[in-house]
Write a structure and sequence with these properties.
Layout (H helix, E strand, L loop, with lengths): L1 H20 L3 H8 L2 E7 L6 H16 L4 E7 L9 H7 L4 E5 L20 H6 L2 H12 L1 E7 L6 E4 L13 E4 L4 H6 L3 E4 L5 H6 L5 E4 L16 E3 L8 E6 H4 L4 H36 L3 E3 L3 H22 L1 H11 L2
Parallel strand pairs: 1-2, 1-3, 6-7, 6-8, 9-11
Antiparallel strand pairs: 3-10, 4-10, 5-8, 5-9
Helix pairs in contact: 3-10, 11-12
């Protein structure tokens, strides 16, 4: 009898040691089960800028099939565009693609990619994206880089402009990152969402607006209420891809590294080439629809562009002196 009790005790101890030494069923299942990121974009699915994220999601799902996937559930009809950054930070949604200028409330320098005059590859070589990712971590989100990058912005008006001085006193629709430049021009910046531009132009609430040409005709029909486009383009479009930190940390470290390498080394070069060509075609479409280009004299163009970048960086450095100067050194030739 004593031998039987001793054997049972020995077996129980072995069982306990085995259970302690091996992961639980739920832990094993969590490791084997594919991770799905539910994602929302700041523009609707039909918009060409949002489509850049759609291409990334499609390529991502193919690359990491069986391990990871992105489910693009919609745009601002799901979560309003100006609430996306807080939604992804809190975990309400796993991933978002949003304008880099829309989340300065959690990261005051979020919009600096817009003020670069370098290519995406040159920005990467400078170490910018690694530094920027660390800043995002401190702000409570994971930064996976950008999509829909590199297309310039223009000022569109309903009044003729011969020189930049003609913009003084005019009401120009902007988004936050553009405010310093429009203010420096002597214009009155009016911050409003993109869907409001058409009606604002139609009713004379604003005299002009700042936008890129992507989606200008097909998504918003702004050509119907716009007469002129100031040809010198400035800044560069940048849509940030942000991930909830807790969700990201469910992925093993080696897989995190593979995602980052794939995004920057494989997807981004193809996306930048595609988007550059697409953007040029979109600009041609705007002009074909009757919006007339305005060109300044060469010296006026130089001064206009210098004012654009100087005013933008001055505001960034005023708010974040040390970080702003460091990032400017990485982003400006």
């Amino acid at each position: 009898m004593k031998k039987i009790r001793s054997l049972k005790l020995h077996m129980n101890i072995c069982l306990i040691l085995m259970l302690v030494g091996m992961p639980s069923y739920s832990m094993v299942w969590a490791q084997l089960k594919p991770v799905k990121f539910k994602a929302v974009t700041f523009l609707p699915k039909g918009n060409p800028t949002a489509a850049a994220f759609g291409r990334m999601a499609e390529a991502f799902n193919e690359e990491f099939k069986g391990k990871l996937s992105i489910e693009w559930v919609g745009g601002p009809e799901v979560i309003p565009e100006f609430q996306l950054h807080e939604s992804v930070r809190s975990g309400m949604i796993d991933m978002v693609a949003t304008s880099s200028s829309y989340y300065v409330s959690i990261l005051p320098v979020s919009h600096v990619p817009m003020f670069s005059n370098k290519t995406h590859e040159e920005m990467r070589e400078s170490g910018f994206f690694d530094t920027f990712a660390e800043l995002h971590k401190k702000a409570g989100v994971i930064y996976l880089g950008e999509v829909a990058q590199s297309r310039p912005f223009h000022i569109f008006t309903n009044f003729p402009v011969k020189t930049p001085k003609d913009l003084m006193g005019k009401k120009i629709r902007v988004f936050p990152a553009i405010i310093p430049f429009i203010t420096a021009l002597g214009s009155a910046p009016v911050n409003m969402a993109m869907p409001e531009i058409y009606t604002a132009m139609e009713r004379g609430v604003v005299d002009g607006f700042v936008m890129a040409t992507i989606g200008f005709v097909q998504s918003f029909a702004w050509h119907e209420v716009t007469k002129y486009m100031i040809s010198p383009g400035f800044y560069r479009g940048s849509v940030a891809v942000l991930v909830n930190s807790k969700r990201w940390n469910e992925i093993p470290k080696d897989l995190q590294s593979k995602i980052i390498d794939w995004k920057f080394k494989v997807f981004d070069p193809k996306d930048e080439a595609y988007y550059t060509k697409f953007g040029e075609d979109q600009t041609k479409l705007v002009l074909d629809k009757g919006v007339r280009p305005i060109d300044f004299q060469p010296e006026e163009t130089k001064a206009y562009l210098r004012l654009a970048y100087d005013s933008g960086w001055a505001k960034i450095i005023e708010k974040s002196p040390e970080v702003g100067l460091k990032l400017k050194a990485m982003l400006v030739k």
